[in-house]
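Whiteboard transcription, Tuesday session. T.W. wrote the structure tokens on the left side:
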């Protein structure tokens, strides 16, 4: 189970709330897989991907609004994660028949949300903290 500690908070209500939702979605999918429920996995991963993309759009809009100078770079980082999301969706389609796919998907989801999504946002933490 993944938890968002204080270190990862951006002190932006909108973005922290989104990150919290993403972490909860990952925890939910992990719990489902651990208890052998695989039927809804693909739908849940699809939901996670949709929310992630919507979050990226919200975040980029907010960064533009506050005049963060490296929005293009961060946007590029977000776009590069699309391939990983496609890959996770592919894995999600295999979880009912393949135990390795289950384990890999869990690991990938945790690294994705903690490293690729949340930790890289710390780059603009000082810029954005307390602005909204
Ligand atoms: Fe984010
Ligand atoms: Fe981000």
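and on the right, the sequence the group agreed on:
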């Amino acid at each position: 189970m993944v938890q968002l500690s204080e270190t990862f908070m951006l002190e932006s209500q909108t973005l922290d709330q989104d990150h919290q939702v993403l972490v909860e979605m990952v925890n939910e999918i992990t719990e489902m897989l651990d208890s052998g429920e695989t039927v809804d996995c693909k739908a849940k991963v699809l939901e996670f991907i949709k929310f992630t993309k919507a979050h990226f759009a919200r975040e980029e809009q907010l960064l533009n609004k506050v005049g963060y100078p490296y929005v293009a770079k961060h946007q590029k980082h977000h776009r590069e994660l699309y391939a990983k999301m496609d890959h996770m969706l592919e894995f999600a389609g295999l979880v009912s028949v393949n135990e390795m796919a289950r384990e890999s998907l869990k690991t990938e989801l945790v690294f994705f949300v903690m490293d690729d999504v949340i930790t890289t946002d710390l780059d603009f933490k000082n810029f954005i903290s307390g602005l909204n």
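Someone added at the bottom: Helices lie at 13-34, 41-65, 71-80, 82-92, 99-121, 125-128.
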